[in-house]
Amino acid sequence: MSRAMKDSEKSSDKKGSFEGENGPNGDTPNSSQESLGISSRDDRDDLVRSSSHTASNKAQILAMPQFGLRDNLIKCELLKKEELYIYREHFSFFLGTYNVNGQTPKESLHPWLSCPLNPPDMYCVGFQELDLSKEAFFFNDTPKELEWMKAVSDALHPDAKYALVKLVRLVGIMLLFYVKKEHAEFISDVEAETVGTGIMGRMGNKGAVAIRFRFHNSDICVVNSHLAAHIEEYERRNQDYKDICSRLQFRQLDPTQPPLTILKHDVVLWIGDLNYRISDLDVNNVKELIGKKDFETLHSYDQLKRQIDEEAVFVGFVEGEIDFQPTYKYDTGSDKWDTSEKCRVPAWCDRILWRGKNIKQQHYQSHMALKTSDHKPVSSLLVIGIKRVNAEAYKKTFEEIVRDIDKMENECIPSVTLSRREFHFTDVKFMAHQAETLSLLNDGQVPCQFEFIQKPNEPTYCKPWLTANPSKGFIAQGGSVDIDLEVFVNRFTAPELNSGQQQIEDILVLHLERGKDYFISVTGNYLPSCYGTSIHSLCLLREPIQDMPQETLREIVSLSGNESAANTEKPLDIPKELWMMVDHLFRNAIKQEDIFQQPGLRSEFAEIRDCLDTGMPDSLPGSNHSVAEALLLFLDALPEPVVPYSFYQQCLECCSSASQCEKVISMLPQCHQNVFNYLAAFLRELLKNFASNGLDVNILVTIFASLLLKSPTKQDLAQKRKTQEFFQHFLIQSSS
Question: Lesser CB count within 10 Å: N end or C end of the chain?
């Protein structure tokens, strides 16, 4: 959930650039993992674009960091006058998506990937649930990556030669991007990113992988996603979509430019197991409509269609008409609907959508011939008008722009008008995003370049809980730009705000190149939270934290773990907030399927946080999954983990001995020791109900060890495994 969590995701990003071909002679890519690695960004770019700079990438050259205001002016004017030198050429893109349910390839993918009569110019092929093993989930390694990559390469259209540009994978979500060899030199700026949307926004069992690239003069982004499961969880799927759009960002060639988001591309192609189901019809009615091939009526009950109609997700995207039967759920190896005890209602889980201009769909279909999985693969063939540059017209436009800029460059000093210079954020809360808009109007005689700059002796232009988006930019003469001033308090910034050591106060300095500086005041009031407050401090608080005067909180935080103020009562054994969450889960979720594996809703987390911080209502709101995730976020936000940093090294050293591990825990400060033992006892109770909740020791160890035993520095894989071994001793005792 937190933006800061992105860094901790595990991803496999194989930088394959044209080292593999597939052609009429049956050649397949070299499938060794080493051959997919390109030693550096420069090497890759040489492979991608072997020609010298041409007119088609001059605009891109102008964005390089050595160019300043003048060249940004030229770039801006070139973009405004693009229609004078751009023409469109049409290319075909094959998009395919397949949830393979953890299976290995058992049949040729030729009926799916080679269904078009003519060979496509590009292939974007996405898989979900590539590997369902615990090893893949915990360590992100899987032999199935190479197996499925080879199956794809073998099945590409036989009448053309293809090069693998990029492979990117996050646990079981994989995306492969191939191009016809003759197009290779026109592909540039290739980047891949991943984002997990599983529990706490970290786990990669759900989420997305994406590849962005420039083809001729068009910027294209391809996303492959696997969203939350279960028929009733459409709001969670909506939240996953929004998380992916906001958190998945690509670095730009120019490091001074802000990252590119998915929607900042000319064309977005979105494929995947989106997991939206059919609502308000029972299984027999659904099958009856399928039998009549009345897909139009059935589609009106489709959750994705309804959510798009309500503009809750995929605003601006298009999906072609669905005239094929639902692609989920089948008995593996057959065309029979699910005959298991659960008897899933058939659904169009597997979808392909697009966003952009000059796009026409040639086909949208499922492929019933493939029977490896409980899903059927889906494909779409899109013909896209790609922007190309007329070199002569470009040269003429470029020269005219340069002449005009030369005339005005030294005539005037830039200036802007600010919509406001003071911003106040009311009732800022932990992990609750707030934003206000600052509008800049260029009222001068020349275009201008702005940037928020650092104040003396400060490392960045703003406090860590504040961002300006964009923090720099260019405004044409008479133009305007809206800047979002965003406040977001996370686990790193909450502790000092909770204690009153920091306030929501900052001054931003907005600098105009060749112009003056403007000063913008940002203030606000922060509502203290148990999130980001130490275990020791919370044990000294008998009342909800927001009922306590700020001065009292400051005094409590100033006490070290072994001290107590003379006038305070005996500390609580464990924080009451922790007890409320664990007690709620013990009473309501001990047999909950997928507990601690399925994320909750952000809106429910906000209600749970407010309940813990204010004491109202008396019992926790929200689903069991939301309470479980709130507990994990609470542990993650502790300024000092349950096992304090000073004990971390000892834990690693004694991880193989159960008795030594217990001895270390017995040496912890009393309140930390109580919390550790309380949580371990609760998790052992959960394991007794594994038949209902599906949990095992490995899952709980993986999730909780990283929260209870945090490294004071960056943790490597060997240390991570030692912390898991340490914590496992406390779960296997008396768990059977």
Answer: C
